[in-house]
Specification:
With 319 residues, this protein is of the alpha/beta class. It folds into two domains: 4-192, HUPs (Rossmann fold, 3-Layer(aba) Sandwich), CATH 3.40.50.620; 205-306, GMP Synthetase, Chain A, domain 3 (2-Layer Sandwich), CATH 3.30.300.10. 41% of the residues lie in helices and 20% in strands. Helix 1 crosses helix 2. The protein is globular, with a radius of gyration of 20 Å. It binds xanthosine-5'-monophosphate.
Length: 319
């Protein structure tokens, strides 16, 4: 029988054997998989691990701070934080097509990561949070068995110029096992059991062209929604929940004045496998509270809608 503690011991031994006294680089995203790899490798090889955390300006509210707090300050992991928000936003300027936006974000990530990696001397290994379903998915897409609907950049985005050997300690594990490892390694529960967040981040939750103004509004709206889901005990009853920024102007009346302001859509789903999903039947009182807070607290938003579409056909993300 495998327990999380045994898997950790086993992987620590394997990593030490593979790496020896050499150095490992890891792209830390703040997601569960790369976080667990960071904690595991830190335990195995300490300062021989350097993490690069790319802040693309499309993260959730306070996410960058939380990553630095947990890993750098709390655990003593070597983390380089790159503020790449201006670069990502300038590359995205004028682009409204969802798949083109995904490509830009993915390519810019590789570019930034590559540049940071080149500054670190003596790195021989690249660690990745590849888990078993990723292995299956990328194998299937290579043989053409799976129809690749969206360009995910989690697997296989390794720049060819970086001749690094891969370290993938989670390759044989399923998500629930990875989470158990995370808890065992002492990562915060909220980090380990957080809803999934797409690689392109808020980039695919701002419909059409991405702008800093939109991202800032969306971050605030999303934080309010998530906070109220937690307060109402609904966060863990949903599989994924988030706000979406709609770049349309809808009318709001304040006193005698008509204001044309942005619209925020709320999406919350229940799903087992993310291939099909049912919209979450959130209580009206909860929706009312979230709506009131978003409209009262965020300048520029005067309308909130709730998405009552199931997948299929409506994907979980709006783009
Ligand atoms: P959809 O929107 O296709 O989403 O129903 C299914 C799951 O995949 C996530 N998703 C992505 N994850 N890069 C990612 O890493 C992407 O481009 C991407 N698009 C969707 C989505 O958040 C949901 O969990």
């Amino acid at each position: 029988l495998w327990t999380p503690a045994q898997i950790i011991e086993d992987q620590i031994e394997r990593v030490r054997e593979q790496v020896g006294d050499r150095h490992v680089l890891l792209g830390l995203s703040g997601g569960v998989d790369s976080s667990v790899v960071a904690a595991l490798l830190h335990k195995a090889i300490g300062d021989q691990l350097t993490c690069v955390f790319v802040d693309n300006g499309l993260l959730r509210k306070d996410e960058g701070e939380q990553v630095m707090e947990t890993f750098a300050r709390h655990m003593g992991v070597k983390v380089i934080r790159v503020n790449a928000e201006p670069l990502f936003l300038s590359k995205l300027e004028g682009e409204a097509d969802p798949e083109a936006k995904r490509k830009i974000i993915g390519n810019t990530f590789i570019e930034v990561f590559d540049e940071e990696a080149a500054k670190i001397e003596g790195v021989d290994f690249l660690a990745q949070g590849t888990i078993y379903p990723d292995v299956i998915e990328s194998a299937a897409s290579k043989t053409g068995k799976a129809h690749v609907i969206k360009s995910h950049h989690n697997v296989g985005g390794l720049p060819e110029t970086m001749k690094l050997t891969l370290v993938e300690p989670l390759r044989e594990l399923f998500k629930d096992e990875v989470r158990k490892l995370g808890v065992e390694l002492g990562l915060p529960y909220d980090m380990v059991y957080r809803h999934p967040f797409p690689g392109p981040g808020l980039g695919v939750r701002i419909l059409g062209e991405v702008k800093k103004e939109y991202a800032d509004i969306l971050r605030e709206a999303d934080a309010i929604f998530i906070e109220e889901l937690h307060n109402a005990g609904w966060y863990h009853k949903t599989s994924q929940a988030f706000a979406v920024f709609l770049p349309v102007r809808s009318v709001g009346v304040v006193g005698d004045a008509r204001r044309y302001e942005w619209v925020i859509a709320l999406r919350a789903v229940e799903t087992i496998d993310f291939m099909t999903a049912r919209w979450a039947h959130l209580p009206y009182e909860l929706l009312e509270k979230v709506s009131n807070r978003i409209i009262n607290e965020i300048t520029g938003v005067s309308r909130v809608t709730y998405d009552v579409s199931s997948k299929p056909p409506a994907t979980i993300e709006w783009e």
